[in-house]
Write a structure and sequence with these properties.
The structure is a homodimer.
Chain A (H helix, E strand, L loop, with lengths): L1 H7 L2 H12 L2 E2 H6 L5 H13 L3 E6 L2 E6 L3 H23 L1
Antiparallel strand pairs in A: 1-3, 2-3
Chain B binds a DNA duplex through helix 3 and helix 4.
Chain lengths: 94, 94
DNA sequence: AAAGTATTTAGATATTTGCCTAAATATATA
DNA sequence: TATATATTTAGGCAAATATCTAAATACTTT
């Protein structure tokens, strides 16, 4: 959960997610969308991978990255849980 | 959005959220749950306030903090949006 | 108004993060 | 096998973050 929120707490990484929403891409293609160096993008991809937001698969010389949206389920549960307790609290005030 | 994810990307701050889920609390009460200093907690509360996750209201000598769950709506929308496009992508593959 | 309580602000320090360039690794191709 | 291409790893630096203690601010009570 912490890795996930940390991964999402950076604009570049959210942009990468946004790109992968449309189609899978290899590291070089992703890097081309940004003005920062490839090693930096590689590092961002690593953090996204650690947070389980993206999956990577080696295809010959390339490494293709894809989104793994299932990790967001846990996050949404967390949010709903908080909102739920809040709703109960609000109700009990009446 | 960035402030929100950054705010949530820290265990202490998520614990604070967890506490406020049950009931509103003043800064001192919150600080009592942690082994870090009051100024540090005060700083965490400030970040949560900046991210609009908590609201504060001065009650005499005390400052009471409460959760503002509406800020999560935008986040859930963001997640659903991503998952949605992913679903479409998956469908189009069939 | 003086003293006590609650909280924040200020300033210092250590750690983490984001970025870079250079070098290493792995695969593909001439 | 030598060279080119794709990506990562390593090492370093600057900015951001998390923490601390000491001091300031604001309110309450005696």
């Amino acid at each position: 959960m912490n890795l996930l929120f940390k991964a999402l707490g950076d604009p570049t990484r959210r942009q990468i997610i946004d790109l992968l929403r449309k189609r899978d891409m290899n590291a070089g293609e992703i890097a081309d969308y940004f003005s920062i160096s490839k090693p930096s993008i590689s590092h961002h991809l690593d953090l996204l991978k650690q947070a389980n937001v993206v999956l990577s698969i080696k295809e010959g010389q390339f490494i293709t990255y894809s989104l793994n949206t299932t990790v967001f389920d846990e996050m949404v549960k967390w949010v709903i849980d908080i909102s739920d307790k809040q709703t109960k609290k609000a109700k009990s005030k009446k």
